[in-house]
Amino acid sequence: MVSLQPRLEKLRAGVHQLVVDGKPFMMRAGELNNSSMSSASFMRTVWPEMQRANVNTVLGGVPWDQIEPVEGQFDFSELDQIIVDARAHDIRLVLLWFGSFKNGASQYPPAWVKLDPKRFPRQKVGAIPQTANYLSVFDPKNRSRDADANAFKRLMEHVREVDGAHGTVIMVQVENETGLLGDSRDRSELANAAFEAPVPADLVELFDKQWETMNSTIRTTFAEQRKAGSIKATSTWEEAFGKSKSTDELFMAYHYAKYVGAVAAAGKAAYPIPHYTNAWLRNIPDGAEVDGATVVGFGGIFPGAYPSGGPVETVLDIWMEFAPAIDFFSPDIYMDGYDSTCALYSHRGQPLFIPEQRRDEFGAIRLWSAIGRFNALGTSPFAIDSGETPYTEHYLLLKQAAPHILDARVQGYPMDGFHFDAFAPGSPDPSPARTLHFGEWGLLVERAEVHGHPAAAYGIIIQTASNKFFLIGAGYQIKFSSNRKDATYTGLLSFDEKEVDDRGELRTGRLLNGDETQQGMAVVMPSKEIDFGDFWFIAMQVPARTRLAECTVYSLYE
Ligand code: DGJ
C-alpha cells in the first residue's frame, strides 16, 4: 500500500521532492502573520482569501502557551478546527512550532515556564549581564528543553491522530529563527561554566572528520586554529577557537543545535513528517564571495545583531551534525543576495525551501529562480494574510506549470530559472542578460525587447528533448546558438503558445512566428503589460497571455 504520509524523497544529489498524497507536490505557500492561527474563527476569513490567491499551502504558528496553558494539560481545540477548515478549502498546512524560541526570544513559552526561572533558567546578556527573554540552552538538567520537547511531542502525536489519515499538515517547522539577540553569547553562570569547560569531543571530531566538506565560511574563520592544531578536546572554547564573536557563535550554535535537535527528535518520533527549521540570516559584507557566490546586503553583521547560534550558513554544519532529526535548514530571505543564499542553503545537497521572503513583486519574481535553478520545494511570502500580493498572478502560473516542473525533476530534464528586476528608466539595469547552457545549445536569456521601458521578467526553461524546450514565464527572450564547431546556422523550427485546458492538460494555442520570433531570431516570452514607448501605433510586441510555450531549435552543420 502506498503511504499517504507526507514525506521527502531524494531524487538525486541536491534534488528532492515533497510527496503529498503519494504524489510530488509543489508548495505555493504563504506564511501568515504570527498570531493569525491562534484563532479558528479569524482563520475562517482567511481561507477564501488564500484560495483566491492561488495559495495551496499555509504556514502558521502553533503557540506553546496556547496548547499547554497549564503544565500537562493540552488544548488543541483551535488547531483541530483550523486543520478541518484548511482541509475543507483544499489547503495544506505547515505548522510553525512557536516553542522555546521565536525570533530568538522566548516569548511563546507558557506562564508556568516564564514565571519559574529557577526551574527554567534564562540567558544573561551584556557587559553587566542582565536576565533576558531567552531560555537557557545550558541547563545541565535540560528542563526547559524537555518541557518543550514534551509539548512538541504531544502536538505531533495529536496531529498524527487527527490528521494522519488525511495529510493536511505536510511539514512542521521546529522553533522559529533561533539564536540570541543582544550579545554574541549567553553570559550567565551556567553558560560561563560551559564556556570554560573543554570543548566537547563530538565537536572536535566533527572538525577532524568533516573539515574538507564544511561550509567555506567556517573554514575561513577557523583556518588558523585548524592549522595550529588547537581544536582539541583538551582545550577550552577560547583556547581551541580563539577569542572572538565567531567562537561565541560556534559555542551558542552547538548548544542551540542540541537543544532544538532534541525537541525535533521528540516530535519526529511521534509523527515523522518532514521537520525543518529556519534562519534569520547574517549580514555578509557586500561583494564578499561565499562558496563561489557573491553576496549582497544581508541584515546585521555580528552574531548578536543577528541571532547568535542560529542556523546561519557559517554554522550550518554544526546544526546538521547535532540536530539530525531536522531534515533541512531554511533561509528567511528579505534582503538581496537571493540566489547566493539559495546556493548556500543547498549545502551538502539538502532540500531547499524558503519559508519567508518578501511579499512584493521584487520577492515574487524570485520564486522562479528558487524553483527552477535551485530545485526548491516551494517558496512562501511572509504576511500572506495582509492583503493582495503579486504572488496571486505568479502562483496561477506556477499552478499550471508545476506538474511539468515536478515531472522534469523526476525525469532529470535539464532546467534553469531566473529573474530580471524592475528598474527605473534611465538608471542602470540591475539584471544583466545571461547565457545558459543546455547540452549542445547556448541560450542567451535577456529581457524581451520593447520600444519603451522593459518590465520585470521571470521564468523557467526546461529541456524536454535534445532540441525541444518548455518555456514558462514572462518578459524575457531567448536567442539560441550551438556549441558545435561545424554549426553554421542555428534557428527556430517552431514556437507554440501552450494553454492549459480544464483538466490541466497542455494544448497548443497560437503558432507563434513573425514579430513574435523577431523573424526567427529569438523566442519572445513577452510581459503581460508592454510599454510601447513612442511606437504604440505599430504594436509589434504582443502582451503575454498564457506565459507558457514550447519551441524547437535546429542547426545546420556544414
Ligand atoms: C521573521 C520571523 O520569522 C517572522 O515570524 C516574523 O516575525 C517576521 N520576521 C516579521 O518581520
In a few lines, what is going on in this structure?
With 558 residues, this protein is α/β, with parallel strands linked by helices. It is 29% helix and 28% strand. The strands form six sheets. Strands 4-5-6-9-10-13-14-15 form an eight-stranded parallel barrel, surrounded by six helices.
Task: Write up this protein.
The chain has 558 residues and is an alpha/beta fold. The protein has 2 domains: 7-126 and 133-183 and 247-402, TIM Barrel (Alpha-Beta Barrel); 416-557, Chondroitinase Ac, Chain A, domain 3 (Sandwich), CATH 2.60.220.20. Helices cover 29% and strands 28% of the residues. The chain has 16 helices and 25 strands. The strands form 6 sheets. Strands 4-5-6-9-10-13-14-15 form an 8-stranded parallel β-barrel, surrounded by 6 helices. Strands 16-19-20-25-22-23 form a 6-stranded antiparallel sheet. Strands 17-18-21-24 form a 4-stranded antiparallel sheet, with no helix packed on it. The longest helix is centred in the middle third of the chain and has 26 residues, at 245-270. The N and C termini lie far apart (56 Å). The structure holds (2R,3S,4R,5S)-2-(hydroxymethyl)piperidine-3,4,5-triol. (2R,3S,4R,5S)-2-(hydroxymethyl)piperidine-3,4,5-triol binds next to loops. Residues 49-197 form the Glycoside hydrolase family 42 N-terminal domain. Residues 392-523 form the DUF5597 domain.
